[in-house]
Amino acid sequence: MGGEPAHLNNFYIRKGDKTQQFWTQAWVPGARLPDVPVFVLTSSRTFSAAEEFTYNLKNMKRATIVGETTGGGAHPVDLHRVKGYPVAVSLPFGRAINPISGTNWEGTGVEPDVKIQAADALAAAHSRALTAVAEKATDPRQKAEIEFARGLVEDRGKPPASLSPAELQAIAGTYGPRTISVENGALWYQRGKGRRLQLVPVGQDRFLVGDLDNFRLRFERDAGGAVVRLVGLYSDGTEEPSVRGGE
Fold first, then answer.
1. Domain 7-133 belongs in CATH node 3.90.226.10
2. Minimal CA–CA distance to 96: which of 180, 11, 166, 16?
3. Which residue, 6, 94, 122, 156, could crosslink 24 as a Cys pair with Cβ 3.0–4.6 Å?
């Protein structure tokens, strides 16, 4: 989809036995972005014109479709009222014919490339978009920041892990300038006199820290399974360890 017009779709209309073609514009008031990754989010309620948009981009291999199979409405319809009765019938008067597939999505819907529940589609697409950007990054620090953001998106998309009271107490303690405490069945983080932030468990000894987008925590254990170290993970890829009970 560069500067030349691209054939998007056709609509065959029964009346008059004619076909109407739809193409992209030859000129747009701005820069074209033919190489920028595109992600389209779908649900089972995506229907009609939104499906056509999705179907066209999928067949042109211009977008990655993420979410659920769409509703399946590819035929334009007219409403016909029955004279003298409170009844109306919706009847198709044509059908879409994609120039690449030679068919359409009527009754079948558009199958996503990444099948996932609609509620999780944004996070899944965001993660893949960050992966695509990271692959093109050449600066190590920039690449680390993108990878950190991707991990953050994925972690926030997971349901919080459940920790028992014993597991919470096993982590609580002082780690250099940092204090981890237990309150109301949750772990709380505080560095010096800074803000107290709730820790959200998202994996084995890995935690999100409150609303921070540039910092996470990992706890490390000794051979016997006891927590001995807290490691602060920063968005630029650096790590800051603090030994339990240490200065």
1. yes
2. 11
3. 6
One DSSP character per residue, the chain reads --SS--EEEEEEETTTTEEEEEE--S--SS---TTS--EEEE-TT--THHHHHHHHHHHTT--EEEES------S-EEEEEPTTSS-EEEEE-EEEE-TTTSS--TTT-PPPSEE--HHHHHHHHHHHHHHHHHHH--SHHHHHHHHHHHHHHHHHTSPPPP--HHHHHHH-EEETTEEEEEETTEEEEEETTS--EEEEEEETTEEEETT-SSEEEEEEE-TTS-EEEEEEEETTS-EEEEEBT--
Query: Residue 143's pLDDT is what?
Result: 92
Neighbours of 143 (CB within 10 A): 16
Residue 1 clears pLDDT 70, i.e. is over it: no
In the block, tokens 């925590």 appear at 217
Domain boundaries, the chain: 7-133, 165-243
- Contact 222/210 with Cβ under 8 angstroms? no
Q: What is the mean pLDDT of residues 149-161?
A: 90
- CA–CA gap between residue 28 and residue 127 (Å, rounded): 30
Listed residue (36, 35, 235) closest to 146, CA to CA: 235
Say if CB 44 and CB 71 are below 8 A apart. yes
> According to the model, what pLDDT value does residue 7 have?
96
